[in-house]
Each structure stands twice: as C-alpha cells, then as structure tokens.
Automatic annotation (TrEMBL):
GO terms for biological process: proteolysis. Residues 124-328 form the Peptidase C1A papain C-terminal domain. InterPro entries: Papain-like_cys_pep_sf (IPR038765), Pept_his_AS (IPR025660), Peptidase_C1A (IPR013128), Peptidase_C1A_C (IPR000668), Peptidase_C1A_papain-like (IPR039417), Prot_inhib_I29 (IPR013201). CDD domains: Peptidase_C1A. Residues 38-93 form the Cathepsin propeptide inhibitor domain. Residues 1-20 form the signal peptide. Pfam families: Inhibitor_I29, Peptidase_C1. Keywords: Disulfide bond, Hydrolase, Protease, Signal, Thiol protease. This is Uncharacterized protein. Belongs to the peptidase C1 family. Gene3D superfamilies: Cysteine proteinases. GO terms for molecular function: cysteine-type peptidase activity. It comes from the Eukaryota. It comes from Arabidopsis arenosa (Sand rock-cress).
C-alpha cells in the first residue's frame, strides 16, 4: 500500500517538473515582483537561501539575469525556462556540470579495437525508446552509465540502478571523475573488476573517496567498444542498446534547456557525458536523439534532452557521435575478469 502512495506521489512530483516553471510578464515589472518570483522558484525547486543573507542577495541578482536571458531568447525551436539552475551563474554551471574539458576526442583509447559489432545492422525502425523496454533506470542527480541498460537487456531482469560512486572512487587517473577517456576507463574497470555493484550497496556521495571493493558484483560486462565517430553508426548502436556519449555542454542554452528538440549552437569541446537511450522524430519531421542526463529531474524534459539528429555534420550536434562507447555482455565470461566464485555460480 505504501508503495502505491509512493508511486502516485512520485508521478505527481515528476509531472510538476515536466510542466516546468513558468512566469508571467507582470512578474518582471518591479524589484518586489521579481523577488516574489524568486521565492516562488525556490519553493518549486526546494532551494533554500537564508533570508537577508549576502548569498541570498547575490543569488537573487544572478536569478534576475537568468530571468532576462530566458525572457529575451526568442525564435528558437526548443524551450528555455527557469529550471533548477536559474540562480547559478553560467561559470558555476560550466565548472560543475560541463567540466570534462580535457579533450575526450584528442586521443583514441589505447584499448579501442576498432571493431564495431553493429556495423552490419540494417532495417532500423524510425523510432525507438529503451525506456519503453524497461532498460533505463530513473533519472538521478549523478553520473550516468550505459551498463544498467545492457544488464537489463541481457539478463531480462528488472532494471537495477548501479553504483556511480564505485566508478568515482575506483576508476583511477581522473579529475572530477570524468577526465578525457572516462567512459572507456570506466568500462575497463568494470570488466577487470568482475562487475559493478548496485547503487544501494555503494551509495552516491559525489566526492571522490577511497575505493572500497564490494564483495558482490551485481552486474557484469565482458568488454566494450567505441562507436565509429558518425551518427549513422551511433544509430545502429542505439537501436541495440543504450550508448554512453559525450557532448559539448558548455553553453547557456544547454544550462537553461527545458524541453523541445534542442539545436543550440555549440562547438565540439566535449565536456559532459550522458547516455543515449533512443531516437525518433517529431511532427515536423525533425529527427532527434533521446538522451538521459544526470542533472536530476529539475532540468530538461524530466531529466532528459531531445537533441537534434541527422544534421549535416556527421559527428553530430555538439559532437554527440565523437566519443560514443557501449558495454558488451556475452553469455560466456571474459578472461580478464578476476574470478569471483559467487558470481560464477550466479551465472551458471
Ligand atoms: C560485417 O560484414 C562483413 C562482410 O560480410 C564481415 O566481413 C564482417 O565481419 C561483419 N562484421 C561484423 C561485426 O559482424
Ligand atoms: C587499457 O588496458 C590496460 C590493461 O591492458 C589498462 O591498464 C588501462 O587502464 C586501459 N586503458 C583505458 C583507457 O581503459
Ligand atoms: C534550429 O532550428 C531552427 C528551426 O528549424 C532554425 O531556424 C535555427 O537556425 C536552428 N539553429 C541552429 C543553431 O542551427
Ligand atoms: C575549445 O577548447 C579550447 C581549449 O580549451 C579553446 O581554445 C577553444 O576556444 C574552445 N572552443 C570552443 C568552440 O569553445
Ligand atoms: C513545428 O513547426 C511549427 C512552425 O515552425 C511550430 O510552430 C511548431 O511548434 C513545431 N512543432 C513542434 C512539435 O516542434
């Protein structure tokens, strides 16, 4: 019974976010009305700023700039609204949420084999959404990874959220957990570690702590491959499983995005990792990727972004096809993984 209430409550909560936070022209007319708008926004996103504090004052100034930016940006096919980042400066956003500026694309991974298991895939449907197949876990406010998807697809068991903190702590040679080549290092770790544990066993803290090796590996992968750097190849891969990608997220439109098919101007300085979980096209025949982000449900379309697909540049909008990787799961065990007897038993 409790669960039913919890589910109803969660749906209500998510719908609130899907609708987004709107404001009216009259709320922009005076300092006092803007202040009320700010209070309303804080309540909506459960943000607390101590009344009368210096921080409250500074944040309010930033908020007003964001309000004006959102209000004055017109003639774009996607929506910008006051999302959960509205009282954060672009610089802060950029440093925290689009910070993997170390050239994902510059060096090929030493472990990339050049093999692409989906190269001969044909007959792709016009649209596909892994969420409808139960292969996507709920949106979190933390790092994402495509391993949850392949695990569900191959084991046919309900989706289990896996531990992002284990990757943050245990994947070495990194800064902010996402320095260039993070995805292949993460897959490499999971492969050699003999798996990854659940979010519940090893909860998210955000900070980089010491790597604890959990006894039980709840999801295993056998290897990983890079998608050739073009959108056609990415489509073949996504039709078969969720795929980890990196994009150039370092722009104010991306920060304030709240829905629609995104086609903002962006470069190819890959700065942020996400997971492509599907594709499709809208009623205007604009093609898009369905991408799961890790900013929580208070951003985008309840945590997702639809990004324009099939643009002239084969590397994709914001470089989405430039650094795409997916985990591989075979029926047999991979020879590099450490032997974990419990686990072998599980699989037999
Ligand atoms: C794709 O087809 C070619 C030609 O038949 C074959 O040589 C290649 O091994 C196939 N690739 C994969 C990944 O199966
Ligand atoms: C490549 O594989 C080696 C082991 O052969 C491993 O030590 C290294 O971390 C891997 N590199 C990446 C980028 O995954
Ligand atoms: C986004 O799409 C709109 C409508 O199709 C178009 O007018 C605009 O130029 C596009 N923006 C970019 C940056 O390509
Ligand atoms: C990409 O990053 C480089 C080095 O940090 C910088 O010089 C360049 O201006 C950036 N390009 C864009 C389009 O942001
Ligand atoms: C399709 O294009 C029209 C005209 O540009 C626009 O008004 C409408 O919102 C678009 N529909 C979608 C689903 O984007």
């Amino acid at each position: 019974m409790d669960n039913v209430f919890l589910i109803i409550f969660s749906i209500f909560f998510i719908l609130q976010y899907v609708r987004g936070f709107d404001f009216e022209e009259r709320e922009l007319q005076s300092e006092a009305s803007l202040d009320q708008l700010y209070e309303r926004w804080m309540k909506h996103y459960s943000v607390e700023r101590i009344p009368g504090s210096i921080e409250r004052g500074e944040r309010f100034n930033v908020f007003k700039d964001t309000v004006m930016f959102v209000h004055e940006t017109k003639n774009i096919p996607y929506n910008l609204k006051l999302n959960k980042f509205a009282d954060m400066t672009f610089k802060e956003f950029s440093n925290i949420y689009a910070n993997c500026n170390s050239g994902y694309d510059k060096e090929a991974s030493p472990n990339a084999s050049g093999r692409f298991m989906y190269e001969n895939v044909t007959q792709l449907s016009d649209s596909f959404d892994w969420r409808e197949e139960g292969a996507v876990s709920p949106v979190k406010d933390q790092k994402e990874c495509s391993v949850e998807g392949i695990s569900q697809i191959k084991t046919k068991t309900p989706i289990i959220p896996l531990s992002a903190q284990e990757l943050v702590d245990c994947v070495t040679n990194k800064k902010n957990g996402c320095e260039g080549g993070f995805m292949d290092r993460a897959f490499d770790f999971i492969t050699r570690n003999g798996g990854i544990t659940t979010e519940q066993n090893y909860p998210y803290k955000g900070l980089d702590e010491n790597c604890q090796t959990p006894k039980k590996s709840d999801a295993t992968i056998d290897w990983y491959e890079e998608v050739p750097k073009n959108e056609d190849a990415l489509l073949k891969a996504v039709a078969n499983q969720p795929v980890s990608v990196a994009i150039d997220a370092d722009n104010p439109d991306f920060m304030t995005y709240t829905g629609g098919v995104y086609n903002g101007t962006c470069g190819k300085n890959l700065s942020h990792a996400m997971t492509v979980v599907g594709y499709g096209s809208d009623s205007n025949q604009t093609k898009f990727w369905i991408v799961k982000n890790s900013y929580g449900v208070g951003w985008g379309e309840a945590g997702y972004i639809r990004m324009e697909r099939g643009i002239k540049d084969h590397e994709g909008l914001c470089g989405i096809a430039m650094d795409a990787w997916y985990p591989i799961k075979y029926k047999f065990r991979n020879p590099f993984a450490s032997i974990d007897e419990d686990h072998v038993k599980d699989e037999l």
